[in-house]
Design brief:
Layout lengths: L2 H24 L2 E2 L5 E2 L1 H62 L10 H10 L2 H19 L8 E6 L1 H4 L3 E3 L5 E5 L4 H24 L4 E8 L3 H11 L6 E5 L8 H14 L3 E7 L13 E4 L7 E2 L11
Parallel strand pairs: 3-6, 3-8, 6-7, 8-9
Antiparallel strand pairs: 1-2, 4-5, 5-10
Helix pairs in contact: 2-3, 4-6
Length: about 300
């Protein structure tokens, strides 16, 4: 081949290599490091990085939401604990208030809301039901004698407790749960229902019932009518204060009456009341059952019994 031919062949080969190089460069991406990655692979890498970034952001947001939820839940637990703690404290204080006859001024202000919620949220009703169940179970495990001398004493003033009630001195005072009239009314109705329920169960079990009251003897007829109206009948005796017993402290009055019953040959199996004056002193028999009271009640100025409805 002539020199001219060789020259043409070299030019053709160079053009072919140049075209092929341009084509390969068009289908590759070049990094400064000198590594070549196909365009499709580069797009997949970028998409993967974007996906990882989105996932990390999503995870961060989820963690923040969970942290916020945990903080709210923890705050709720603390609030529930505080409420439970206040309730326990006020219940214990109320017990000592009853035992020691503390004045309303001695009661902690924090317990005012607790006292209302105790009734409104149903805990008072549950406590009453528990008391009825405990007394019923005990009296169902023992049987009265056939001579009628085994008796159960019930404080009937729990049945008639309303906006007025009798104090230790035989006077009447107002029942007012921290100014919450609805709460006071609800509490008295709940106790009345529980009293009648237990009364019926004791009668059905064959126990003779001796009923005690702080009311004066002159109110006997009215009291009998109220008992019958409430569905309570068939009692063995109804004990009310004589004139010479009216000046007595109610604890002394109840103790005296229980002593008289024992001297007459009666055997007291149980005493049932919500007030400590009927549940203290001698001659209490084998068991005492205390109806729960509202956490505390505010007594207004005592009034002479003659000024109240008969």
């Amino acid at each position: 081949m002539s020199g001219y031919g060789h020259q043409i062949e070299r030019e053709y080969s160079a053009q072919t290599l140049s075209s092929r190089g341009s084509s390969e460069m068009a289908s590759h991406s070049t990094f400064e490091s000198g590594i070549y990655i196909p365009s499709f692979a580069a797009m997949m890498l970028i998409a993967a990085l974007v996906t990882v970034g989105v996932s990390l952001i999503t995870l961060l947001i989820t963690l923040l939401v969970m942290l916020k939820s945990c903080e709210s839940r923890s705050a709720g637990v603390v609030e529930v604990w505080k409420s439970s703690d206040d309730y326990s404290y006020c219940k214990l204080f109320a017990l000592h208030a009853e035992l020691n006859r503390l004045d309303i001024d001695s009661f902690p202000a924090i317990c005012k809301d607790v006292a209302v919620q105790y009734i409104k949220q149903g805990q008072y009703m549950r406590d009453l039901n528990i008391t009825v169940g405990i007394a019923e179970r005990y009296l169902g495990t023992v049987k009265p004698s056939h001579d009628g001398l085994d008796v159960v004493l019930m404080d009937i003033d729990d049945l008639f407790l309303s906006e007025f009630y009798y104090t230790d001195d035989g006077l009447l005072a107002r029942f007012n749960l921290y100014g919450c009239k609805d709460c006071s009314k609800e509490a008295t109705n709940l106790k009345r229902v529980s009293f009648v329920e237990l009364y019926m169960k004791i009668r059905a079990a064959g126990w003779p019932l001796a009923l005690l009251s702080r009311k004066p003897e002159k109110l006997r007829n009215t009291t009998v009518e109220q008992l019958i109206s409430a569905g309570c009948s068939g009692w063995s005796s109804l004990i009310m204060r004589s004139d010479d017993e009216m000046p007595m402290d109610s604890c002394e009055y109840f103790t005296r009456r229980r002593g008289v019953m024992q001297s007459e040959g009666f055997h007291i199996t149980a005493v049932i009341s919500s007030q400590m004056d009927a549940l203290t002193g001698p001659y209490l028999g084998k068991r005492i059952f205390k109806f729960p009271n509202p956490i505390y009640y505010n007594t207004g100025h005592p009034m002479e019994s003659r000024n109240l409805p008969q």
